[in-house]
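We store sequence, tokenised fold; for instance:
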Amino acid sequence: MITPAPSALPNRVQRAQIERKYGMFIHFGINTFYDTEWSDGKLPIDGYRPSAIDADGWVRNAYEAGMNYVVLITKHHDGFCLWHTDSTDYCVNNSPVKTDVVAEVAKACKKYGVKLGLYYSLWDRHEKCYRDHRRYVDFMCRHLTELMGGGYGEIVELWLDGAWAKYPSRWDIPRLYDLAHRLQPDCAVSVNLTIGKCLRKLTPDKFRPERYREGMNIRYFPSDFRLWDPYFTRSDDPKLYSHDGKSYYLPFEATICIRNMRNWFWDPGYHDDKLVGAEFIAQKYRELTAQDNVLVVNVAPDICGRQDDDDIKCLLDAADLLGIRRSAER
């Protein structure tokens, strides 16, 4: 069973993540078409009808904005899968638009030299075997094997979410971590709300990132880094956390939305939400990278499969402030 070794310093996988510095989150899925952030797994699949999927544009935008990787939603809490799979009826290949979104993003990442990370929700509000904990872990392992088994190329990050829906032991995180590292040895793996007591309910506010203290408990072990969106660490962010009496180095990945900090999926009122601003993004980039942490900014594609021009202008303005803007042929 692969597990990280106790250490006061970053290991090879963590150093590579720290060096990536800056990435783009891409929330896109069935929620995009129903004006909702979270759904219950019952939204009609017929409603998933993007007029296009501009995956090349998403990744090009990230590249030009100086970002070094993207993190793509593969399955949110609703259980809708954005890749071709026969493990469930709730997936793109059973929808009106059968494009394998993961494959298209992976192709664009290779084209622009941008690394690929994947988001996967442990919580699944559609899958029938979900409450049979052992069967459901087998189901997740099948998904992770499909996603990380080589068909989509190199995967540098696995962002696991929704673990608050069950007690931590029922997810078998060690098995998921071991599988991910066997399939993708250079992949950094973490579970949202990484630090805190092992409770089923949401982590109490005392464990929010700005309140981290050295030696706090690793709630989901093993993990390669820390997550709790959309918050930031304090300037003297501690890096050492504990499990079973041993100490482990964990960098932090801050994930925010470009609009209103929390607007993950596009909706008809998207333009009513205020942009966080280029100066804010640049400030947080500088603060986080100075701490050997990383920043990820979510930019949600719309029902036409395109990202908003104002969102991209904000990213490009931030890149200009930071001196990291790149040029790609259009």
User: Anything to note?
Assistant: The chain is about 25% helix and 15% strand. The longest strand covers residues 69-75. Residues 55 and 105 are 5 Å apart (CA to CA). The mean pLDDT is 95.
